Amino acid sequence: MPLLHTDSLYENELSRLRESVLLMGAKAEELVSRAMRAFSEHDAGAAKRLVALDEAIDALEVAIDDLALLVLARRQPVASDLRFIAAVLKMVTDLERVGDLGVNICERVAELGASPSFPDTHAELEQMGRDSVAMLHDALDAFVRGDEALAREVLVRDARIDEQYARIFQSLVARMTESAGTVDRATRLQSLARYLERIADHATNIAEMVVFMVKGKDVRHSQRGTRGG
Amino acid sequence: MSASARAKVVVEDLRAWFAAPGRPASEATSALSGVSMRFAENEVTALIGPSGSGKSTLLRCINRMHEVTRGAGVGGSVRLDGVDVYGAKVDPVEVRRRIGLVFQRPNPLPMLSVRENVLAGFRLAGEPVPQAEELVESMLRRVALWDEVKDRLDRPGTSLSGGQQQRLCIARCLALRPEVMLMDEPCSALDPVATARIEELLNELRSKITIVVVTHNLQQAARVADSTAFLHQGELIEHEPTSVVFTNPRDPRTENYITGRFGRTTGS
Fold first, then answer.
1. What is the ipTM of this complex?
2. How far apart are CA A182 and CA B17, in angstroms?
3. Which candidate in B261, B262, B265, B268 is best for mutational testing of the A interface (most A CBs within 10 A)?
4. Which residue of B has its CA nearest to A216?
5. In terms of DSSP H, where are the helices of chain A?
6. pTM to 2 decimal places
7. Which residues of B touch A (CB under 8 A)?
8. Mean pLDDT for each 10-residue chunk of chain A (229 residues)?
C-alpha cells in the first residue's frame, strides 16, 4: 500500500493539484471532441459556444501554476513529489495549447460553412480527431494512474497520427493541383489536420512527462519507435 | 561518491553498540549494524536519516570518538588512506587530529579568547605554534570571520554570535590542518543567514578537504553535498550522488523519508 505524506495538508495540496490537472484535461478533451462534432455536423456556431470552455481551461492553467508554485515554495518537494510538480507545470502548458487548438478547429469549421465537402478526407479527419482525442484521454489516464506502460503506448501511437496527417495533406494537395477552385476549402482542411496533429503531439508530451514522473526517466526526443519500449 | 573520485575514508562492515555499565556486550543496544561505504576525497558527503538511524554514531566512529563513550563498542574497520584507524599501532589522538569534528552546538572553549580558541588544538596538545598570529589570521580569514573579529581577538570566544561561534569552531578544527572534517548538524542552532555562511564556507573548502556532514535539513544536504547517504535503523540504505537521491532515489525507504511519508497508507 502506498504511503501518504505524514503532513496531511501537503497531501491535500498535491491531491488538489492532481485533481485540477485532471479537470483541465477533461475540459481540453471535451473542447476538442465538441469541435470535431461541430466539424462533422457543419456547425458554424460552435466556436462562440466553446469560448467559455477555453476560458475555463485558461483559468485552470493560471490556478494550477499558482498552486504548484505555492507547493514549491512551501514544501520544497523532492524525488517523486518534485517530478510530479515538474510534470504538472509542463502538462498544463500542453493542455492550454490543446484548448487553443480546439478553438482554432471551430474557427476553421465556421469558415468552411456548409460548402461541398470531400467525403474521403472528411472521414479521415474524423478518424484522426477520434485518435487524437483518444491519445489525450489515455495520456491523462496514465497521469492519474501513474501508469508508465499506458504512457509509453500513447507515445507509439503518435506515429500513426503523423501518417494520417501526411496522407490527408497529400490528398488535399492533389485536389488543389487538379482544381484551383478547391484551394480555399482544402487549405482550411489542411489547417484542421495540422491542429489535430499538434493535439496528438501535446498528448505525446504529456505521456512523456508521465514516464518521467513515474520512472524519473526523460524520454523526450528519443528515437521514434524506441521510446515506447 | 562520484565514480572517478578516490576514496579518502572507507568503512567496512562497521558495527557500533552501546552496552549499559556492567552489562555484557551481548545485551548491548546496536547503533550500526554492518555499514560499508566510501567517502570520496575532497567531496562533501551528507548523512541523512531519522533520529536514531546511526548517522552521528557513524560520524563518531570515523574519528574514534564513539569509543570515548562509556559502554560503547565498535567492530569492522574504518580506513583512512588505506590504514585502519582502529589498528593496534594507531594513536587515536593522531586520528582525531587528521579527522576533525565540528559539533552541533558551537562550543568555543569558555574563558579562552577568540585568538586562543583558534589555537586551542595546539595548546591542549602542549605543542608550540610557530607564527601563531599568522595562523590565527589565515584561519579566521578562511572561515570568513576575520573582518568581523579582527578588532576583538582578545575577547572571549563565547562573546560572538552563534553563527560566528560556529565559524570559530570550524577555524579551530581547520587550524590543525585535518584531512577530513566531520560535521554533526553544524547549522541546526543557527539562523538562515549564519547557515548560508557555513554552507558557502563548505563550498569553498570542498576542493581542499574531505567533508562529511550529518544533517536533518534535507535542503541543506541537497545544496551542499556531492553525494548523500540515507541511514535507517543502523543500516545504510542508499548512497548515491545527491542529484539522484533528491530526484529519483532507488530505494522506496529513501523515497518515503525524503518526501515525508512516515507511515500513513492510502488504505487501497
1. 0.80
2. 87
3. B261
4. B248
5. 8-40, 46-75, 79-112, 119-145, 148-178, 183-215
6. 0.86
7. 218-219, 222, 245-249, 254-256, 258-268
8. 86 96 97 95 85 94 97 94 97 98 94 80 95 98 96 96 96 93 93 98 98 92 58
